[in-house]
Design brief:
The complex is a heterotrimer of chains A (about 240), B (about 375) and C (about 325). Chain A is α/β, with parallel strands linked by helices. Chain A has 8 helices and 6 strands; from the N terminus they run βαβαββαβαβαααα. Chain A has 2 domains: about 130 residues, P-loop containing nucleotide triphosphate hydrolases (Rossmann fold, 3-Layer(aba) Sandwich), CATH 3.40.50.300; about 70 residues, Helicase, Ruva Protein, domain 3, CATH 1.10.8. Chain A has a 5-stranded parallel β-sheet with strand order 3-4-5-2-6, with helices on both faces. Chain A starts with 8 loop residues before the first strand and ends with a helix. With about 375 residues, chain B is an alpha+beta fold. Chain B has 6 helices and 27 strands. A 9-stranded antiparallel β-sheet of chain B has the order 14-11-12-13-26-25-24-18-22. Chain B has an 8-stranded antiparallel β-sheet with strand order 6-2-3-4-17-16-15-10. In chain B, α1 crosses α2 and α5 runs antiparallel to α6. Chain B is elongated. Chain C is α/β, with parallel strands linked by helices and about 325 residues long. The chains are: A alpha/beta (about 240), B alpha+beta (about 375), C alpha/beta (about 325). The interface between A and B is medium-sized, with 22 and 35 residues. β1 of chain A pairs antiparallel with β27 of chain B.
């Protein structure tokens, strides 16, 4: 503790409000139809919903939220991120038909992998017979993500398809502030706009940033003002 | 309205409700006290629209009725009447007349219909517990409430009811206080309410270290506490308390036990030379030894050594001394236990022999 | 006749009221409403009426019942779930402390289990920090809260506030309807004449008359005619008014100038009947400059200025825009 020691920093408790992916925390912006489709799937009014669109549009959020909503009401559900393909094997799809809902994220990641496509095709058929609700996401339409098994492509085209649109800056701002509020934080519009101007624009990074800001605000018992953000971001 | 009673029978209830009458209120009627005389006796009600207090007394009622009169004036008059005097209160037109011995006062009134009262707080499952226990529960937790935090639900005390338990939790984001009362709590499911700071402070003022029972009711919008002759009602904070369970660490290896009083005194002394703003003190734990050090921007230093029980590996951790002192102050027993994880994780402080009250403090990076 | 501070339904608001009631019945009450319109229409009475309707126990009716205990509290101004934010005595601004206190009150649950309502009037009187603070409440209104903002200068509200409110623009009645209402309320011809100054806002006419505007308007038109003909100097005209009348004079000058602009531009009869005493052929461009100056003065009316100097400069500008040949010894 020499004379040059920096100012002490009080660390914050990890108290936190639940802001994980839920249907309520999904800011629909231009994607209300996709949200509605997922809600119908959960209500049993659809059996297969296929969401596609570029990254950062909220596909994973909707899939996780659906799985969560299902498990909260006690249904057997699963969420499989196929982007984790390296640690997954196609056999994992066996027995999925016993679930009420399967959410398969990032379908394009297994495109052109014959074993996976084959396994998915059969799983699809079994789930269809068993009445398991299937929620899929991919970067593009079924016939445009590079799948090689024609039967699988045609199966995937049976379901309801919704395209998610990227959010413009206003939507992002609204989504960010919505998420902040769910954590009990008030992110003023001008401060949110400041973040959007200076930080990576993809929602995942922005939400992670919110985490940092939340902790900093709690530690210093401060509001999220622009000067405060500037300081935290400079230190980060 | 026409009633008659002893000075003391009027003064006592007046004194117990006058605290919520704000000195500077925007609405004249809130500076008044509501007097209701009917078959059930007489009640005096005061409110600041957030907290309502109703006191009961039993006068001789010749004519029932209800009226509001200026609270402080009535209080000053009654207080200055001779002891034991018989006081008669009656309403004449839009004035109230107070008579006692050879004194006579006329006070301006406002109609009772202008006075906002909390009527029904909805269906509740009343909880009956000793006044002393309830007081202790609040007293030993309320200090950790936030003060004017933007997350306004931190500016209150969480009361949580679950089968067999009543719990109180307060946190300002740096530290947390948790208290539990076990008893005959007939809750069917978890029920949580957040009592605003003002209501908490008023409750502390009202509750005594006494054996008699209080009745606690948690409604959808209000908390109501009934004591002998007095009923307290406060609005609740409209918000959701964060999930506090996850910040309470479970520690079994880095456990330090110390005598409370010597530890407290060492902390008080060390904090004298800590940075006034941050009050940071540094703990160095070694085998059965604790060193507490502090310094300030003027390069002054304090160094304290204590014998404690500690057998785990040596560690160093910084704290805001005030938070530790608040916790140590709330603990009753002679021996305290601190459960530590590492220099950037929360620490738990509790009485070695009483785990009903637990305090969680986040460290400081010094 | 006084301007009442209550919740009566003025006939010119009937359609708007019916629409608001329908929203309440359909359970589609907006979280925030901005009532706008000229001063002296009774906007605040309408806001209060809506608040009373929302908080009355018998609220299924078309109007607050006025007799239930809640209505008793509302009349007394002591209903715990109705918060009113106005500039404090002796201040023209609604301050941030008051808005924060409102936020804290709305952060508590309702007393009677129903709506929590706040009226902010005049909303444009919130200073910047007060408006920012209110924005937080507007952006995330607690469930069951309704904010009613009242403003006759909504353009002075931050766009962020306006955009979060359901806008309810209120119109003045026709001149005939306004005159009829004033007469039914027992007002005299002078008040009816003042409708020309208030843009047919009936309550504003009543208020102006109470402030002595009826005779003041006559005096002012005489002065303007005198200055135009060079019979009196601008300095003399200005000296005839007392300091506390300055705002009134500026308002009246404004009404006169607007009426002149209207008659010259559209060739219609003036609304203020005696304006035909004023010279014809005013300098059109200067008249508009004069109007701008008046608007500026009215904007500055909140600030203490040397009122005598202000009035003098206004009369001087008036004499400038009068035709030269009209001015002779």
């Amino acid at each position: 503790m020499g004379p040059s020691s920096p100012e002490p920093v009080q660390l914050p408790l990890g108290i936190r409000w639940e802001d994980a992916a839920s249907l309520a925390s999904f800011h629909p912006a231009g994607n209300a139809r996709a949200l509605a489709a997922v809600e119908r799937l959960l209500a049993g009014e659809e059996t297969c919903v296929y969401l596609h669109g570029p990254g950062g549009t909220g596909k994973s959020h909707l899939l996780q939220a659906a799985a969560r909503a299902g498990s909260e009401r006690g249904d057997p559900v699963a969420y499989l991120p196929l982007s984790e393909r390296a640690s997954l094997r196609p056999e994992i799809l066996e027995g999925m038909e016993r679930l009420d809902l399967l959410a398969l994220d990032d379908l394009h990641c297994i495109a052109a992998d014959a074993a996976w496509e084959e396994a998915l095709f059969h799983a699809f058929n079994r789930m269809r017979d068993a009445g398991t609700a299937l929620l899929l996401s991919a970067a593009d339409r079924p016939d445009a993500v590079g799948l090689v098994l024609p039967d699988l492509v045609s199966r995937l085209q049976w379901g309801l398809r919704e395209r998610l649109r990227p959010m413009d800056d206003d939507d992002k701002l609204a989504a960010l502030r919505h998420r902040a509020r769910l954590r009990g934080l008030e992110l003023p519009a001008e401060a949110g706009a400041y973040l959007l101007r200076r930080q990576p624009r993809d929602m995942d990074s922005l939400f992670r940033l919110l985490d940092v800001l939340d902790r900093a605000a709690l530690a210093e018992q401060r509001r999220l003002t622009i000067p405060f953000l500037r300081r935290v971001l400079a230190a980060d | 309205m026409k009633i008659k009673l002893q000075r003391e029978a009027l003064l006592r209830p007046l004194q117990s409700v006058i605290g919520v009458v704000e000195r500077r209120q925007t609405l004249p009627v809130l500076g008044n006290i509501l007097i209701v005389a009917d078959d059930n006796g007489m009640t005096l009600t005061a409110t600041d629209l957030e907290v309502e207090l109703v006191a009961q007394t039993t006068p001789e009622i010749t004519e029932p009725g209800q009226i509001t009169v200026p609270a402080r004036k009535l209080m000053d008059i009654v207080r200055n009447l001779p002891e034991g005097a018989e006081v008669a209160v009656s309403v004449d037109g839009d004035q109230a007349v107070i008579r006692a011995e050879r004194s006579r006062f006329t006070l301006a009134t406002l109609p009772a219909t202008e006075f906002p009262t909390v009527e029904d707080i909805g269906e509740t499952r009343p909880l009956v517990l000793p006044q002393r226990d309830f007081r202790e529960l609040i007293e030993k937790t309320h200090f950790a409430m936030a003060l004017q935090d933007v997350r306004y639900y931190l500016n209150g005390l969480l009361l949580e009811l679950e089968p067999g338990k009543l719990r109180a939790v307060a946190t300002d984001g740096h530290r947390l206080a948790l208290g539990e009362l076990e008893g005959e709590v007939t809750a069917e499911q978890l029920q949580q309410v957040i009592v605003p700071r003002k209501g908490v402070q008023e409750l502390l003022r009202l509750l005594d270290d006494a054996d008699d029972q209080v009745r606690v009711e948690l409604g959808g919008n209000h908390i109501r506490v009934s004591l002998a002759g007095l009923r307290f009602t406060s609005k609740l904070i409209d918000g959701r308390f964060p999930d506090y369970q996850r910040v309470i660490p479970t520690v079994d290896d880095r456990v330090m036990e110390a005598e409370r009083e010597p530890l407290r005194q060492a902390l008080v002394r060390a904090s004298i030379l800590s940075n006034e703003k941050y009050r940071g003190v540094r703990f160095n734990l070694g085998e059965n030894e604790l060193r507490i050090q502090s310094n300030n921007p003027e390069h002054e230093q304090a160094d304290e050594e204590l014998t404690v029980t500690y057998g785990a590996e040596a560690m160093e951790i910084g704290f805001n001394a005030s938070y530790l002192l608040d916790a140590l102050h709330a603990v009753d027993g002679d021996q305290v236990r601190m459960g530590l994880v590492d220099s950037s994780s929360s620490t738990i402080i509790e009485d070695v022999n009483d785990r009903r009250y637990r305090y969680v403090v986040m460290p400081m990076r010094l | 006749m006084t301007v009442p501070e209550e919740d009566r339904l003025y006939p010119w608001f009937r359609d708007t009221w019916d629409a608001l009631v329908q929203r309440v019945r359909d359970d589609r009450v907006p979280h925030a409403v901005l009532l706008t319109g000229a001063p002296g229409l009774g906007k605040r009475a309408l806001a209060r009426r809506l608040a009373h309707l929302l908080l009355c126990e018998a609220s299924a009716e078309h109007a607050p019942c006025g007799t239930c205990p809640r209505c008793g509290l509302l009349r007394a101004g002591s209903h715990p779930d109705l918060h009113t934010l106005m500039p404090e005595d002796g201040s023209r601004a609604i301050r941030v402390d008051a808005v924060r206190a409102l936020g804290a009150s709305l952060g508590l649950k309702s007393q009677y289990g129903g709506f929590r309502v706040a009226i902010v009037s005049p909303a444009e009187r919130m200073n910047t920090s007060a408006a920012n603070s209110l924005l937080k409440t507007l952006e995330e209104p607690p469930q069951g809260t309704v904010l009613l903002l009242v403003s006759d200068q909504p353009s002075r509200l931050p766009a962020t506030i306006r955009s979060r409110c359901q806008l309810v623009p209120l119109q003045a009645p026709s001149r005939e309807a306004a005159a009829e209402w004033l007469e039914a309320e027992g007002a005299d011809r002078e008040a009816v004449e003042l409708l020309a100054v208030t843009g047919n806002a009936p309550l504003a006419a009543v208020r102006l008359q109470q402030e002595g505007a009826g005779s003041a308007l006559g005096t002012l038109v005489d002065q303007l005619a005198g200055v135009a003909r060079g019979q009196i100097t601008p300095v003399h005209a200005a000296s005839q008014w007392r300091k506390e009348q300055a705002t009134l004079v500026v308002d009246l000058l404004m009404a006169v100038a607007m009426d002149l602009a209207r008659t010259q531009g559209a060739g219609v009869k003036p609304r203020i009947s005696r304006l035909n005493q004023l010279p014809q052929g005013l300098d059109w461009e200067k008249l508009h400059g004069f109007l701008d100056e008046l608007l500026e003065q009215r904007r500055l009316a909140d600030h203490p200025l040397n009122t005598q100097l202000v009035l003098e400069s206004l009369f001087i500008r008036w004499s400038d825009l009068c035709p030269r040949e009209g001015i002779h010894g």
